Amino acid sequence: MQSKISKCVFPVAGLGTRFLPVTKELAKEMLPLVNRPIISYGVEEAIASGCSEIIMITGRAKRSIENYFDRSFELEELLKSRGKTELYEMMIKISNMAEILFIRQREPLGLGHAVLCAEPVCGNEFFGVALPDDVFINESDPVLAQLIKVHEKMGGSVIALEEVEPENVSRYGIVKSQFEIENGIHKIIDMVEKPDVNDAPSNLAIMGRYILSPSVFEILKGQQAGAGGEIQLTDALKTLCAQEPVWGFVYKGRRFDCGTQKGWLAANVQLALEDPELRDVILNAVK
Ligand code: G1P
Description:
The protein has helices spanning 38-48, 63-69, 73-81, 85-95, 111-116, 119-122, 143-154, 215-221, 233-243, 261-273, 279-286, and strands at 7-11, 32-33, 36-37, 53-58, 99-104, 127-130, 134-137, 157-163, 173-182, 185-193, 204-212, 246-250, 254-257. By secondary structure, it is an alpha/beta fold. The protein has a 9-stranded mixed β-sheet. The protein is globular. The N and C termini lie far apart (56 Å). The site of 1-O-phosphono-alpha-D-glucopyranose has 15 residues, from β11 and α9.
């Protein structure tokens, strides 16, 4: 079954414990990556990939994400009255970026449960999932768009993959590929969430972009808690790949892991070095 992907789900209810104490009050998705919040990169990628509806699965501590994408009349009026046209237009552009729906995940039961919260909106359609901690940069061909192309060609669900070093295997969901059908496209027959390196079926790790079949919702409804005591999306996809085709795609592009303090810091430095206006600031600071 093929379909156009118009919806992308962003699970953003996580408490961000890897960033404490900053995230005691601040949503980790709102931390800056050079000049805009981390979440903005994922949303821009989804829009550039053709998604017109963004569904955020959020929690009570994440109101700042809702406010960020909403209009702010007071600020807009102030900027307009002071003749700060460029900033004013920037604010309008952010709030017009996409149709964004917010659904509350009432309990932190895991990524699988967060995705299940999107069922009332996604219904019977294939949909995208983007984990905003993984920031992908590929200007010409956004990573979600690459997965959509595989879905359009092959049908079924598609997961972004990356080969990781053995020491990093236990940080990710790891897949077992039956065969590589063509350049970078793998038929997935098994997967396991955060395995010990000795038990891992490969070094092909799941990265935070997915195109999922709506069949995953029924599986998630019966899904027991797995690794870390959470309802894991990986466990549900393991069941799904026995029922329907699930493809893995070794994406093309660069990934910045903004889910840890070290990764986020490194991403800021790397991206600032690539910005012609900021490059010298960083080089001088390092000197
Ligand atoms: C999640 C997924 C995992 C995936 C990872 C990618 O883990 O559960 O399968 O490999 O994202 O970033 P998390 O990083 O939320 O623990």
